[in-house]
Write a structure and sequence with these properties.
By secondary structure, the protein is mainly alpha-helical. It has helices at about 5-25, 40, 45-50, 75-85, 90-115, 120-130, 135-140, 145-165, 170-180, 185-205, 210-245, 255-260, 265, 285-295, 295-315, 320-335, 345-355, 360, 370-390, 395-410, and strands at about 55, 65, 280, 280-285. About 65% of the residues lie in helices and about 0% in strands. A hairpin with a 2-residue loop joins strand 3 and strand 4 (about 280-285). Helix 8 (about 145-165) packs antiparallel against helix 9.
């Protein structure tokens, strides 16, 4: 099957949209999940009216709020609009999560096209990233944490364009993306922020796309636009850390986080402690049972990243080194101080940093660096399919369909 240029451009995004939205809309119609904040569906107008103020007199005897200001954009306005037009809460939830997933896959397409990719491998990489088991850890309870995962490929793409054009347009777009995804949980954004910086280092010293001076100028432009666009949320975070409840001391300890973030779990896109939790009522996140007890699913969840690394070993590609570095960086950060009682020297550094201050403790959720590892393996998987398609053209579509089918089978809870 051969597609024209116009049809080819829209074919991939259309398939991504179908895979992101349709299964969610058909899943448990009428049932609302306990995602993020209940006021988003119960009364989004009241949540938005209180979010601009850091002081809330309606809780206890009054308190400095925690993260509420972040709901001013984009989650709060989205649910307010859905409520205003009479969209059922359950459908609003499904469309929200579908959009988060679709934009993640679309970001991979944008990134690989920025790097000069064309062909079926782009679609495979987009599906592999969009349908990663990583999203199951947060989609059921705290989907807002997925926003940096969605933004990661966009941020790398915009960084590459900023370095090439050396203007203000793409840094400004980066500022808008950071403002959109980092308002509620800055930690998750910081965990993946090293990926764009890594691109600048790679493009400057390995690819020689820019001089050191040009790279520094690009970093300055990006910093100016990013800080300027997110100053409202940064100020809120600063006030909360000074005058609010030290909430990081009363939530999960870093030891709890580290004990679940093994290298093997990180390798398949998992490793967040909450994913494995259970109590007398059952598992907190039901898919965790499948990923720890179903032999075929466990095997498949390891087979796909192993296949990706095999592709990286045998296929030559200009930007292979960057995505290899991305996997190493994401893997090291995700594993952090695991195993807790016999950690590595690097793990000891993580452990020390989380103990020196509340700011350090706020960085305890190291598994949120896993999107870098997931993106690297997704791109290598697409790279392998593309190489096979060029070497044996008649296998292009069969290989594409087979690999995308395996990716879907690796996320049975979605389909």
């Amino acid at each position: 099957m051969k597609l024209g240029p116009s049809a080819s451009r829209w074919f991939g995004p259309a398939l991504l949209a179908l895979a992101a939205y349709l299964p969610l809309v058909l899943t448990s119609p009428g049932r609302v999940g306990a995602d993020t904040k209940t006021y988003l569906y119960l009364d989004p107008s009241r949540l938005l009216s209180r979010a601009p103020s850091m002081w809330d007199a309606n809780i206890g005897l009054g308190t400095v709020t925690h993260q509420n200001i972040g709901y001013l954009w984009p989650m709060g306005p989205y649910y307010w609009l859905a409520d205003s037009i009479g969209l059922p809460d359950w459908l609003a939830q499904r469309l929200w999560l579908g959009t988060v997933m679709f934009l993640a896959g679309l970001g991979v397409i944008s990134l690989l096209r920025t790097l000069g990719w064309r062909g079926r491998g782009v679609l495979v990489a987009a599906f592999a990233y969009m349908l990663s088991p990583y999203l199951l850890q947060y989609s059921a309870r705290i989907s807002v944490i997925l926003l940096p995962w969605t933004a990661l490929p966009w941020l790398i793409s915009l960084t590459a364009k900023s370095l090439r054009t050396r203007g203000w347009r793409y840094p400004a777009l980066m500022g808008l993306v950071v403002m959109t995804v980092g308002g509620v949980n800055v930690t998750s954004l910081i965990m993946i922020a090293l990926a764009p910086l890594l691109w600048i280092v790679y493009a400057t010293w390995i690819e020689r796309e820019a001089t050191v001076g040009q790279a520094v100028a690009t970093v300055v432009r990006i910093a100016v636009m990013t800080i300027g666009a997110s100053l409202w949320s940064f100020m809120g975070l600063s006030l909360q850390s000074r005058y609010g409840i030290p909430i990081v001391r009363y939530t999960e300890a870093y030891r709890t986080v580290a004990e679940s973030s093994s290298a093997t779990e990180a390798f398949r896109g998992l490793g967040y402690w909450f994913f494995y939790g259970n109590d007398s009522l059952g598992p907190w996140i039901r898919p965790s049972i499948e990923y720890t007890n179903r032999t075929l699913l466990v095997a498949l969840s390891f087979a796909l990243p192993v296949l990706a690394l095999a592709c990286a070993a045998v296929v030559r590609w200009r930007h292979r080194a960057y995505f290899g570095f991305l996997i190493v960086l994401g893997g090291l950060m995700t594993v952090g101080s695991h195993p807790w009682d016999s950690t590595s020297a690097l793990g000891g550094l993580f452990k020390w940093f989380t103990g020196v201050s509340d700011a350090g403790l706020a960085m305890r959720s190291t598994p949120r660096a896993a999107p870098m590892l997931v993106l690297g393996t997704a791109v290598f998987l697409g790279m392998g399919v593309e190489a096979l398609a060029r070497r044996v053209p008649r296998l292009a579509w069969p290989a594409t369909v087979l690999v995308i089918g395996l990716i879907g089978a690796n996320l049975p809870s979605h389909f």
